[in-house]
Design goal:
Blueprint: H1 2-30, H2 34-46, H3 48-59, H4 64-67, H5 69-72, H6 76-88, H7 91-97, H8 105-115, E1 120-128, H9 131-143, E2 148-153, H10 160-174, E3 178-184, H11 193-201, E4 205-209, E5 229-232, E6 236-240, E7 257-259, E8 262-266, H12 270-285, E9 305-312, H13 320-331, E10 335-339, E11 343-344, H14 347-358, E12 362-368, H15 374-382, H16 384-389, E13 393-397, E14 400-402, E15 406-409, E16 413-417, E17 421-422, H17 423-428, E18 431-437, H18 439-452, E19 456-459, H19 461-465, H20 469-481
Helix pairs in contact: 1-2, 1-3, 2-3, 6-12, 8-13, 10-11, 13-14, 15-20
């Protein structure tokens, strides 16, 4: 009995020392947000053993700068893509022809300075609101590829749709087309070698972003590549919220109909998407990309859709997509429509939304009615009360699962991409969004938002105030954890 007690005290004392060391690292080396630091200190204090395990899964940030040092380096090859756009495009000329966009010139400058996001105005955009339409066109585009296919997805499932896409890619690779597939090691952890080997054996390449040390089991929850993009021959590019899997066709019993938003781009904005793919591919594979100029697509007819492709992640100097969201909210004069599956705003976004609501703007936020990540869902609900008081209107999507990441301001500027309105997308994940300067695209997105309201339930202050005590407790606990969710 004494020996058992001695063993327990030995383990406990070591856990205490480990907690103290971790606490010192948190305070003196990581320089986190103070709220996040205090939260982790409390977790380590009150949960000595469990807290250490949680930190390994959710809190590791110690080697961030070292990990992403090479990823943040942009060599001359990638600068070619940016220089080509800077030579051909001028926001001054675009604003001369389209003076109604002058109020948004500061957003363009913000993205140019903060993330090297060059403005282009020779683009065409097609919107997708269902997986059936998006994947039907994507498969046709892949089948029509003449030179190369570069694809990057967070989730790539081994199911009917995943196999169809993989076999189509393999067919093109066997024809001598360059095929590169980059998938995330966490999101696609269940994708087995038997399916990826179909592409490899046909001559294509498959690379994992932060692959697990042990198959299926990945402890690195942070720093995930959440981007979903595909570039074909430099002539077409797809970007948005849909991953690859049956559930995104609405075939999941758990989620039912899947409501998402994706876009297809034709025009010079594709070069920015291609540039981001190369950076991600180089980091994940260690392979240098040669002959970047050969991947620059043809310039389209000018004076069409203005676009900036904006990327952000833990390797970015600035949280560029979040800054863009914040600028859109602050610049809005009449309406602000938001669709997001995860709503955990940081302090700056939260205050901006309150000010927009108090200013009398038509501010509406649409979120899912069912959680796929419960803690995230309850944390989101906790922010609702104060915003409702400020005049912001909230809706829950009832038809199925809402996964769309869209912000629409006034009649001109909108954004579609992979970034949610949450702290994880702002700081911990690699994301990519298209900021679109076009009345027609804005109008189509706004029209779809209003149509989606037919499948929504509005959460009024009376409904919110009548929620049960159990729900309030869940919200309080989840909000306390929100900095690490």
């Amino acid at each position: 009995m004494e020996s058992l007690f001695s063993s327990y005290m030995f383990i406990f004392s070591n856990l205490i020392w480990i907690n103290i060391l971790l606490a010192l690292v948190l305070v003196f080396f990581e320089r986190r947000n103070p709220t996040s630091t205090w939260l982790w200190l409390m977790v380590l204090l009150f949960l000595p053993g469990i807290g250490f395990i949680l930190y390994l899964f959710l809190g590791q940030d110690m080697s961030k700068k070292k990990t992403f040092k090479t990823k943040a380096e942009e060599d001359d090859c990638f600068d070619i893509l940016i220089a080509d756009q800077e030579k051909n495009f001028s926001t001054r000329e675009f604003l001369k022809r389209n003076p109604e966009y002058k109020a948004y010139n500061d957003i363009v400058k913000l993205h140019l300075m903060g993330s090297n996001s060059v403005f282009t105005s020779d683009n065409k955009v097609k919107l997708y609101f269902s997986g059936e339409d998006k994947f039907a066109d994507l498969l046709k585009s892949i089948e029509g590829a003449k030179e190369y296919i570069h694809m990057e997805y967070y989730i790539f499932n081994d199911d009917a749709l995943g196999r169809e896409v993989m076999v189509t890619l393999a067919t093109k690779a066997s024809e001598g087309i360059e095929v590169k597939l980059l998938i995330d090691g966490m999101g696609s952890r269940k994708l087995g070698r038997s399916l990826t080997n179909v592409l490899r054996e046909a001559g294509g390449e498959v690379v994992y972003f932060f692959p697990p040390f042990i198959p299926v089991f990945n402890v690195r929850i942070n720093y995930r590549n959440h981007r979903k993009i595909c570039i074909i021959d430099g002539k077409e590019a797809y970007l948005g919220g849909f991953n690859v899997g049956n559930e995104y066709l609405g075939l999941s019993k758990k989620f039912g109909y899947w409501r998402d938003t994706h876009i297809r781009i034709e025009g010079s904005a594709i070069s920015s998407i291609q540039w981001q793919f190369f950076l991600d591919w180089r980091f994940a594979s260690g392979e240098e990309i040669r002959g970047c100029q050969s991947y620059i697509g043809d310039r389209g007819e000018d004076n069409q859709v203005g676009i900036q492709i904006v990327s952000s992640g833990p390797d970015s100097k600035w949280p560029s997509i979040k800054d863009g969201y914040l600028k859109m909210i602050n610049n809005a004069e009449n309406r602000l429509y938001i669709e997001t599956p995860y709503f955990i705003p940081d302090d700056s976004i939260f205050e901006a939304l309150k000010i927009a609501g108090l200013s009398g703007l038509d501010v509406r936020v649409m979120i899912p009615n069912k959680p796929d990540h419960p803690f995230v869902y309850w944390a989101g609900l906790s922010y609702m009360g104060e915003l409702l008081e400020a005049g912001v209107r909230f809706y829950t999507y009832e038809r199925g699962f809402l996964h769309s990441k869209v912000i629409i301001t006034d009649d001109t500027v909108s954004t579609v991409g992979t970034a949610n309105l949450d702290i994880r997308s702002f700081k911990l994940n690699f994301e990519i969004n298209a900021f679109i300067y076009d009345k027609d695209t804005n109008g189509m997105l706004a029209e779809r938002f209003l149509r989606d309201l037919d499948n929504c339930r509005e959460i009024t202050m009376d409904i919110y105030s009548s929620r049960s005590r159990v729900i309030k407790i869940k919200e309080s606990v989840s909000r306390l954890l929100s900095p690490i969710l």
